[in-house]
Amino acid sequence: MNLTHLSKDTLVTVVNGQLPGPTIEVTDGDSVIIHVVNKSPYNVTIHWHGVKQRLNCWADGVPMITQCPILPNHNFTYRFNVTGQERTLWWHAHVPGLRATLHGAFIIRPRHGAGSYPFPKPHREVPIIIGEWWEMDLAQVATDLSNNSLFDFNSASTINGKLGDLYNCSGVAEDGFVLEVEPGKTYLLRLINAALLMEYYFKIAGHRFTVVASDANYVNPYDTDVIAIAPGETVDALLVADARPGKYYMVAFPYQAPKPSIQGPEYITRGMIQYSSGNGAPVLLSTSNGTTGEEEGGGPSADVPIAPEMPDHNDMVTSLYFRGNLTSLRRPQLPTLVDERLFITLALGSVCRRGRVCERGSTNDESITVATLNNVSFELPAAAETPLLESHYYNTGGVDVLRELPARPPKVFNFTDRDLIPYGPKEANLEPTSKATLARRFRHGAAVDVVFQSTSLMQSESNPMHLHGHDMFVLAQGLGIYDAAKDVARYNLVNPPVKNTVLVPSLGWAAVRFVADNPGVWFMHCHFEFHLSMGMAAVFIVEDGPTADTSLHPPPADFQTCGHDESLMLQ
Ligand code: C2O
């Protein structure tokens, strides 16, 4: 559909004519059936981000890993059960670029109703989806990314699809998202970061939040005035409308470690909360007390909303502090014995175009920059082939040719040495590397520790690492180079937060533990679209367990093989 955001009419691909797409609301224990009818000119798949898909990897929605892409004018039906999960997840297209407009909230209500909330039932529950508006064609963004020709791009941030009043194009400011609140009532905000690129700080002037869940796992209630959220993450937070009635800005503000390409005002988006009496009439103070509306503190004037004071856009400490304060509410079943340990470096490397041999330091037209895990860059199997999950299930050999993800990087260097940062001419510092379909196999039930180490080769970008089909216990996060001798002592083995996406801070590390108990072929990747398109990914293959209820189910009867099939075409 065509969407206009003030200055320009842009053709975008959306679901059911909506941006963000429709909210899917289910109850824990439900069976879900979703028919996808692809009327777009692109191949798509839909991924149910964070839904565990136990024994049912077939519905995970990753092209060429779990299924063939859904071709234009074709359809596909996803069937899955939601079991043992509650609160906020989301869904998005799992094809490069398009997830910027193909996404929506996936809400799981508790099985036994509101009575089973570990907090008083809020008056209303409101999805807050932070996203980006791209004026360029998203399919083109993706192509340019994967061959290193995206040099000039522009995006602006959105809350629930709206740019907000700071995005001042042609002299007309656009309205932002407005949440009406009644004095004294409690609201549950379901925050989702659906952006391709940016981490955000989220604040509402004059109000605080109680964070109660993240990635559909409850946390011990944590009181804060700022929420940090990276692409792929969700945060559930209670908001009490306990300020003087008036208007208060809510702001999503991107942050990033220092780097040359820093953002302009279009990256900041704001909406508003507005007090009302419940029958729609705004509740406002009758007199202005002289505040400008741009400073926190003091009461609001009748019309000028108050803006929150945001952290600095290079402030990484507030994010680390926020994450460090999250602990699991329910005692997690954390294994104490670890079967396998991986140390994975997140970096950039260079590969040669068209199979040419190029040496370290070769010029730009011979080499392309790729993103790597332990110095290998991921590539999907060709679309003409069979999805990995099918080869794995039928044991047809397709997974024997995968390159094994090494347990450690091939060489140890000073990972956080800023001199290595490859800007411009220093591109020569990139390690020569290769592309492969990178995979690692796990015995069913193995307890796996992974330390993700960010390196200066990431140009000071951080990495939200996402694992499909499993949640991870986040044991610790830190800055600098991980040092087992002292950092293991910092592990939270009592109540670590449970997440499907863990933020690895720029020039820092994150240590996670997970139990490989969901058989199938699961994608593990950075949720920054650029890093993913550039190859920062691997597949984790989890073997079947000894019994039928620990083994991957057979594919659904209507599971489609790759290629054009007349019978699946839309009429
Ligand atoms: Cu939300 Cu593989 O992604």
Automatic annotation (TrEMBL):
Enzyme class: oxidoreductase
Location of this chain's protein in the cell: Secreted, Extracellular space, Apoplast
GO CC annotations on file: apoplast
Listed name of the protein: laccase
Enzyme Commission code(s) on record: 1.10.3.2
Recorded family membership: Belongs to the multicopper oxidase family.
Entries under Gene3D superfamilies matching the protein: Cupredoxins - blue copper proteins (2.60.40.420)
Signal peptide (UniProt feature, chain positions): none
Reactions catalysed, as given in the entry: 4 hydroquinone + O2 = 4 benzosemiquinone + 2 H2O
Predominant place of localization: secreted
